[in-house]
Amino acid sequence: MKTTIGKEKAPKAGSTADAMGICKLLSKFRSDDSYECGQLPPDYSREDPEARTAGVVTGADNSSYDVSFDGDKDPMNPRSMPSVRKWAIVIIVCMGTLCVTCTSSIYASTYTQMNPEFGTSSLVSTVGMTSFSLGISLGPLLTGPLSEYYGRRPIYLVSWSLYIIWIIPSAIAKNIETIIITRFFNGYAGSSFLSVAGGTVGDIFLHHEIQAPMALVSSAPFLGPTLGPLLGGFINYYANWRWSYWSMTIWAAALLVAIILLAPETHHSTILRAKAKRLRKQTGNDRYRAPMEKTAKSTGRAVALSLLRPFQLLFIELMCLCLDLYSAILLGILFLFFRAFPLVFRTTHGMNLWQTGLTFLGILIGMAVGVATSPIWKLVRERLLGKSESEPEYRLPPAILGGVLIPVGLFWFGWTMYPDIHWIVPIVGSGVFGCGMLLVFTGVFTFLVDAYPKYAASAMAANSFARCLFSAVFPLFGTQMYENLGYQWATSLLAFLTVAMMPFPWLFFKYGKVLRQKSKFALDT
Fold first, then answer.
1. Which domain holds residue 18?
2. Where does the chain cross the membrane (predicted)?
3. pLDDT tens-digit profile of 120-137?
């Protein structure tokens, strides 16, 4: 087995000294799932010749042969894929997230036609948005951990196929009960992209490359909800409300084809397990084992522990708990705006359905500006790296700035909502809020993937659970809050909540390394 690490070359096997030299070199080498080579036995010279080209570490006294990647350039390693292929995968997972989150919010635009047809109130109709968000919040708790055991691709294919199936009942529903129930399963099936996408990006990009793709992945769950009312405003103003669902079905079907053709398996442990299985079949030697196959746990126990992990991260890990709570409040506010914006802009400025949909352009443009700042944050991180080694906390500066912009935008939006002030002024304030929210999510998402590399999908699943749980609840009281407190003080109440959460990114930037050293899940640098 020829292995090159830096400029050092592995000595030839043949003596105990040579074996110890190889062991010393290999001890520096970790696989991409953080598995490290242990000590080699003294009689390393009796190595299996077939293992020399298999990317494994073997020994005569070992009961298993460790299968690993031959570095980041190994053709089987997803990080060795061409950049074009990597970005195609990023676009696919972003479009999937956009489609799901757009479906969640486009529903609010159907009220004007759907409510009279079904004879239901706006409050009852809002339960349909809540049920979808509940599905999204619960789904990642299953799909995220399962993707770390069975791989990303099977989860994408199965869940997305079910997502398409569950859209159709909403398009042909005869009553509101059908929509409320089927939207829960629709959200549950489509939620995989919200939890697994971050893990997929971590699979295919090196740490110093992850900033730009994670900026897109982080923005997709929030660009989608703002895109929904914009598209839905035009669809429901000029066509039947059922076309809101048929358009999402067409979008999702096209994306399923792209997943089948362009999205390979990227989970490192799953690929190594397949590699070990192939080696066992080719050589007839059952000692080849991938790292995840060396555990003594049964399959059922391993899956059960994987399903438990998001809850462990959410409730045991202080950093996950605080950042997930911050994320949840922000998404809850965004979903509350789907009820508040139509109320505010129709009563204050007399806008119709499609004009109200266009008011979400402020948040959309603000988020786009936040995405455009990604090169700046890359430079900031490089300057921080000049002083020390890479730390996950270096991903948090965007969240620190975003935490300041969010309450500024909310106060701006709330206290400019008067008939004698031009409608563009509060929309600009909402854009400041949107930019800040995107920066917070970019910092939080990249930090979670970097701080919990082995459990990235579970960390994102915990975050998605908290976010979507809040997004399910906030719309239920949005209209009543704005009517009872007034537009200004209702928005100020939301702003005060974000002020209370503002210090967390800074605190974890300063003390995150100390907290990670005490964690059994986080990366210890």
1. 4-62
2. 87-108, 155-173, 185-206, 218-239, 245-263, 314-338, 358-377, 398-415, 421-448, 489-509
3. 988 888 899 889 989 988
